[in-house]
Specification:
about 325 residues; alpha/beta; TIM Barrel; 2 domains; 9 strands; binds flavin mononucleotide
């Protein structure tokens, strides 16, 4: 099934960050496409989905709901449950995550060691979603211990994948070293008409253009840089650096929180957003005071009133 992706700037999936509210705000700022964070397909197939993770609104479309798992049958089943219920633009299979818990479960990035099994997983999922007309995409790394991109790509393409996002590091690297975008270019040459998306170490809007030019890829993902600067999408669209004040950053967080309360219990939302707050205020005057106030907040009310107080203080 073909999927059209043409020079898109995409919010990368990030567990703990890219839930509905953040995706929506990034789309408003100019992200062309979003991905959910990874969801356990085996759990979904056996017990149903975690509603907070699968929740999204139409404004976040085009959206890929991302699953991971261990074997073709359960991944295909989990994917079917989500696809039939929510009709996302695509189901994405994660073959990149290499955190200990996931590797121990022999899922996601672990499977990079078994390109043929990756192919079987995609094939089974493509078959399951065909009646729904929903394509299957993947997000991969270069390999596990060594770069086996060509073999991986061959198996995925044969299995009918509709787009490949590549974070060009090995699984064993975690986030060390740097993303090797020459491998995104190599994948683009192999993939033919199947869209290729690159992901890794894009820190400024200018680098987005560089990646498109260097590799000919169809999409560039922005991950960590978007957590601390979601305005990067707007900067890219408007082709200029944007100075964002502390007050505007506080307003962003308050809006995100309000949206989160639609699908997260209030206190849980406030707890969840704290990790993002400290990143969003990186390098901003007043950051130390803000972080201190955030850490001291014992309840949601306190968090909100502290945010508002600091905003007043630094707007004057
Ligand atoms: C906190 C965090 C959580 C992540 N969670 C996911 C995930 O759920 N699914 C996925 O495919 N990649 C995940 N990634 C990888 C990112 O999508 C991206 O490929 C990687 O961070 C490199 O891009 P960046 O340098 O722009 O952040 C995660 C990365 C981070 C930092």
């Amino acid at each position: 099934m073909s999927l059209k992706i043409d020079r898109e700037v995409i919010l990368a999936p990030m567990a703990g960050y890219t839930h509905s509210a953040f995706r929506l705000l990034c789309r408003e700022l100019g992200a062309d496409r979003t991905y959910s964070e990874l969801m356990n397909a085996t759990g979904i197939a056996r017990r149903g989905e975690e509603k907070e993770l699968s929740f999204f609104t139409d404004s976040e479309r085009p959206i890929h709901l991302q699953v991971y798992g261990q074997n073709p049958e359960e991944i295909a089943q989990g994917a079917y449950v989500l696809a039939s219920k929510y009709r996302p633009e695509a189901i994405d299979i994660n073959f990149g995550c290499s955190v200990k818990k996931v590797l121990k479960a022999k899922a996601a990035g672990y499977l990079l060691q078994y390109p043929e099994e990756m192919g079987r997983i995609v094939e089974e999922t493509v078959k399951a979603l065909k009646p729904l007309g929903i394509p299957v995409t993947v997000k991969i790394r270069l390999g596990f211990y060594e770069d086996t991109l060509e073999e991986i790509a061959e198996n995925l393409l044969k299995a009918g994948v509709s787009a490949i996002a590549l974070h060009p590091r090995l699984a064993v690297q975690g986030f060390s070293g740097s993303a090797d975008w020459s491998r995104v270019k190599a994948l683009k040459e192999i993939a033919g008409s199947v869209p290729v998306i690159g992901s890794g170490d894009v820190r400024s809007w200018r680098q987005i253009d560089e990646k498109f030019e260097q590799t000919g890829c169809n999409g560039v993902m922005v991950g960590r840089a978007a957590v601390s600067n979601p305005w990067i999408f707007k900067e890219y669209k408007e082709r200029r650096d944007i100075e964002v004040s502390l007050a505007e950053r506080v307003d962003f967080i308050l809006r995100e929180l309000e949206l989160m309360w639609g699908y997260f219990p209030k206190e849980k939302a406030c707890k969840a957003i704290k990790a993002q707050i400290s990143q969003l205020f990186k390098g901003v005057r007043g950051k130390a005071k803000l972080n201190d106030a955030i850490m001291r907040s014992k309840s949601c009310e306190e968090l909100v009133s502290n945010l508002l107080r600091i905003k007043e203080e630094f707007s004057g």
